[in-house]
Amino acid sequence: KREGDKWILNGQKKWIGNATFADILIIWARNEADNEVKGFIVKKDNPGFAVEKMKDKMALRIVQNGIITLTNCEVEEADRLQNANSFKDTAKVLQMTRAGVAWQAVGCARGAYENALDYTRTRKQFGKPIASFQLIQNHLVEMLSNLTAMQTLCFRLSQLQDQGLLKDEHASLAKVFCSLRTRDVVSKAREVMGGNGILLEYNVARFVADAEAIYSYEGTKEINTLIVGRAITGFSAFV
Ligand SMILES: Cc1cc2nc3c(=O)[nH]c(=O)nc-3n(C[C@H](O)[C@H](O)[C@H](O)COP(=O)(O)OP(=O)(O)OC[C@H]3O[C@@H](n4cnc5c(N)ncnc54)[C@H](O)[C@@H]3O)c2cc1C
Predict the structure, then answer these.
(1) Given the CA of residue 60, which atom of ligand 1 is nearest to it?
(2) In which order are the strands placed within the sheet that holds 65-76?
């Protein structure tokens, strides 16, 4: 809520990437007066701001995530994002970040595929590289098919972005499709590596774990599906 030239923010949010060491954070908060979401620049030393580092994540371990708590956190009106006046403005940011996560899924799947391909060409069973077995080639080709579909979808997404034509539903469709297909690709990559697929030293286990985070953040499958569903049917199924 607003009090004179200041805003008082209250609330808590889990999972904020890099919040543990960021100097400034963008907080999206609903204004009690007009019920609209607004954006605020919160500095790490703002009174009432606290962050706690999350521990023991199995995925995206290189990224630190924090739980942010705002307790009567004071923010100057000058630190309110002046052009962010409703959730529609927040959604513009989500459109961009969801497109980015679709590409991230491509990178994860590609890393898994390339590691698996290399492995199968060197790992020998019955005196031959396992890549020479028909059933292993079937897995590799399925992985490559998914990967190629994801890459071309994301390439088109970026073209639309460059042309200023990207819509929320494009980004959501790409995020849903790529994060779903990535789970499939990393799972097959792990499979063709046998037991070694679960050892961290062979890389693919890391991609398997990261695919789970990519699947759930920047809008779960459910929320992104409803965004696409609304666009293609004209009916909002949000409750
Ligand atoms: C690694 C990681 C990094 C993240 N980084 C950030 C960040 O930087 N900033 C940030 O703000 N957030 C971040 N998040 C939070 C992320 O956006 C949420 O985890 C995600 O939106 C899901 O919310 P939740 O975890 O509370 O799941 P929940 O809301 O508890 O949902 C659990 C399950 O129920 C489903 N569900 C919930 N409601 C419904 C419904 N009405 N109908 C059908 N299904 C439903 C969900 O789709 C999901 O499958 C991050 C999360 C992760 C895992």
Answers:
(1) 1
(2) 2-3, 6-17, 65-76, 49-53
Q: Is the CB of 12 under 6 A from ligand 1?
A: no
pLDDT for 102: 98
Work out which ligand 1 atom sits closest to the CA atom of 19.
Answer: 8
Q: What is the pLDDT, as a whole number, of residue 158? A: 98
Cα→Cα distances 138→115, 135, 142, 184, 188, Å: 16, 5, 6, 14, 10
Q: Is 235 exposed, middle or buried, given 0-12, 13-18 or 19+ CB atoms closer than 10 A?
A: exposed
Atom of ligand 1 at shortest range from CA of 218: 17
State the pLDDT at residue 197.
97
Ligand 1 centroid–CA 101 distance in Å is: 14
Mutate to test the pocket of ligand 1, among 220, 221, 225, 239 (most ligand atoms within 8 A of CB): 220
pLDDT digits (tens, 9 = 90+) for 154-211: 999 999 999 999 999 999 999 999 999 999 999 999 999 999 999 999 999 999 999 9
Domains of the chain: 2-79 (2.40.110.10), 87-233 (1.20.140.10)
Instruction: Tell me, using a 6 A CB cutoff, whether residue 65 lines ligand 1.
Output: yes
Average pLDDT over residues 34-50: 96
Closest residue CA from atom 49 of ligand 1: 220
pLDDT tens-digit series, residues 83-95: 999 999 999 999 9
